[in-house]
Write a structure and sequence with these properties.
- The protein has a 3-stranded antiparallel beta sheet, covered by helices on one side.
- The protein starts with 15 loop residues before the first strand and ends in a 10-residue tail after the last strand.
- It has about 110 residues and is an alpha+beta fold.
């Protein structure tokens, strides 16, 4: 977090680190799926407990999206492969615990 943001707006004290915010994204490496975690440090004023701030999260290609750029790039070829099978209910990765509904609700899942 930039230096000036580490001070309490209420009383000017230096903010103390109070924790870390973690967000996740799904990433696809051909034949692999991994979870990418982004940890964001949280700061608070040790005197007044009012000036809580969190370092910014990395930018995402779809702001509320769960998928990384490579995972999004993986979707069109898979859609072409399964387009002849209209009864496909789920997209599954073999050898992984990831199950994505075909209705696309996961596409913009806020993580």
């Amino acid at each position: 977090m930039p230096g000036l943001d580490r001070f309490c707006a209420h009383d000017g004290h230096t903010l103390a680190r109070i924790g870390v915010e973690t967000s996740e994204q799904l990433d696809v490496i051909p034949e692999q799926v991994r979870v990418v975690q982004h940890q964001r440090v949280k700061y608070a004023c040790p005197c007044c407990d009012l000036g809580i701030k969190v370092t910014p999260a990395p930018a995402r290609i779809i702001p509320p999206g769960l998928l990384t750029e490579s995972a999004l790039a993986w979707i069109p070829p898979i859609v072409l492969l399964i387009s002849n099978k209209l009864d496909v209910d789920d997209i599954r990765w073999s050898d992984s615990a990831v199950l994505l509904s075909a209705n696309g609700s996961w596409y913009t899942f806020a993580g």
